[in-house]
């Protein structure tokens, strides 16, 4: 019959088998019985989640079923093509429909890492506040007054704020927190390191003024270290304001790094701005370390530059180690690396600078006097 011309041999055999299942029909005798048209195929139907793949047989009517590739689905039988899911969706296990991807960030409700960081941050803040209270209570003692008492208070407050800025990195990021993250700890650490730099410079100047006719005497006083700290911190503030004005950080969604996940993260906006903040902070730490190292053996009253030297060594080591770890991590791990670097460097400053002084204040009050200091210095 003309209708059967062009059909492949397998199709004709399959059609004849279907016709023979009708009582009284033999081969072509029932083709005119009505609208019923027999279905002919030489392959099993492809289920949803798969597609037809032609070319595996010499017969054009034959095909095989292959599973849809990653990120694509088919929701009908015998589909010839698979459909790609939207960026925020992902195929289910059967690959017959798209489902929403898992949203990942450091959540307060679902992540034990957040509970750990929050607990450590609160504990360090309370410890920092206790040390600040001790220093204020014993503010008139020689060890607190040495190397500028006001700078010590300012340093303690800045370290406390650095512990608190950890909370800007926790929870779902938004545009505001993204802008405050790096800029806040950049400015806070600049204030802290600038305070240590001013302390180191004051130790060096104090030693120089002991010589008769020294021109360094005009630099002695409470205003000079505050001016040094303010000038160094102002440069960091200028860098941050310029960064926020040109290309500020913003909330970003990473839909490609992990299959089936959407990473809610902060985009730095300007990479140059981000590394300028970190670079200037590192420059301050390096200068402070060098000056403190050179002044560590000067015979000044309660010379704390040896503690500053060690604290800057810890500070620089943490941030140098943080850079490769930060660049090689993604998602929550990247944020965790930043938080760890902030907390480790802050605790390093607190421990190296203030723990020895608190030990003398609380457990060796005999050394916290001019007589006790002179006798200890002569040993």
CATH topology heading of the largest domain: Rhopdopsin 7-helix transmembrane proteins
Spatial strand order of the main sheet: 7-9-8
CATH architecture of the largest domain: Up-down Bundle
Structurally, the number of domains stands at 2
| Overall average residue pLDDT | 80
Strand fraction band?
A: 5-15%
The CATH first-level class of the largest domain comes to Mainly Alpha
Number of strands: 9
What general form does the structure show?
Answer: elongated
Structural class: mainly alpha
Describe the fold and architecture.
The protein has 379 residues and is mostly helical. The chain folds into two domains: 25-100, Tumor Necrosis Factor Receptor, subunit A, domain 2 (Ribbon); 112-378, Rhopdopsin 7-helix transmembrane proteins. Helices cover 54% and strands 9% of the residues. The protein contains ten helices and nine strands. It has helices at 9-20, 112-137, 142-145, 149-164, 175-208, 223-246, 271-294, 305-327, 332-363, 370-378, and strands spanning 50-54, 63-67, 72-73, 83-84, 89-91, 98-100, 102-104, 250-254, 261-267. A three-stranded mixed β-sheet has the order 7-9-8. Strands 1-2 form a two-stranded antiparallel ribbon. The protein has a two-stranded antiparallel sheet with strand order 3-4. Strand 5 and strand 6 (98-100) form a beta hairpin. Helix 5 runs parallel beside helix 7 (271-294) and helix 8 (305-327) runs antiparallel to helix 9. The longest helix is centred in the middle third of the chain and has 34 residues, at 175-208. The chain is elongated, with a radius of gyration of 36 Å.
